What we know:
Distance between the termini: 59 Å
Mean pLDDT: 93
Largest sheet: 5 strands, antiparallel
Radius of gyration: 20 Å
CATH architecture of the largest domain: Alpha-Beta Complex
Structural class: alpha+beta
Strand content: 15-25%
Low-confidence stretches: none
Shape: globular
CATH topology of the largest domain: Aminoglycoside 3'-phosphotransferase, Chain: A, domain 2
CATH superfamily of the largest domain: Aminoglycoside phosphotransferase (APH), C-terminal lobe
Number of domains: 2
Order of helices and strands: HEEEHEEHHHHEEEEHHHH
Amino acid sequence: MNKVLQQWVQQVTNAKSCQCDEVIQSLWSGYGEIIRLRLEGLTVPSVVLKHIRFPDEARHPHGWHSDFSHQRKVRSYEVETHWYQAFSQYCDARCRAPWCYQTTTLGEEHLILLEDLDAAGFSQRKTWLNKHELNLCLRWLAHFHATFLGVNTEGLWPTGSYWHLETRPDEWKAMPNTALKQAAKSIDAELEGCQFKSLIHGDAKVENFCFSDDGRDVAAVDFQYVGGGCGMKDVAYLIGSCLDERQEETWEDALLDTYFTALRKSLSVLKKDVDTVAMEKEWRGLFPVAQADFSRFLAGWRPDHWKVNRHNQRISQEVAKRLLILDD
């Protein structure tokens, strides 16, 4: 880490000194890195720096290189910066997110200085979840959606999720000419046309959740694709990111019950003036549509991905055929 970055971190935190403790991970396609910084002279032992540097030549791991995809990534970091500046402070303990110390731009480098969730007691990471762990994440999403129900999306993505059809034309073109491809715009329109909209996380995969050391709580990171939409997009994506085909099919109903119980409770606690019965009815009906929407993305992006399974393919085909019939 160069001296300019060190000086900025010390100025923001009032630390006597700071040094790079570890590179936690590189950002997608070589757009920078996330670094843990060790601090001296403070009660807080460390912070996390998201250091964004746009490369001269992107290195997408699956070959999706274009100026369009580059601009999407640039926009995603602008969105994340704005999220931390204007929205993250409204996340309470029930939808825990890292505290943001400050954001800035130094030349062509973009910096987001964040609380270290490991030091705050959220050091556990998972790739697969049991029911208890998945229920923690679903409750996090429910409270997040309740907190930001009906808010203005200015400065964020108008439509949240990294796989949104409008932002993925190349992947749509790469799809085989199936009913799912033909119904893609209708699927998107059905989700967009929902009455009840919130902010959605937009990348709520299991890897973006940090579990507490005692296994009783969870926090979330990576807010590049926060935007408006139906909460079922987050729920469908989360479930598909950490369960196998048999678990998805067997657990789905119970998991949705957990989510909607938590959503009703959060809406009540937050005193949101909303018809919870109508909202639940609408969103439950849109759950398979959200599954089909993500399956549409995978079918063009990586049709051999492990998340593609018979359960999701069957649901996607049913949704696509229904919508195509309605369009005729």
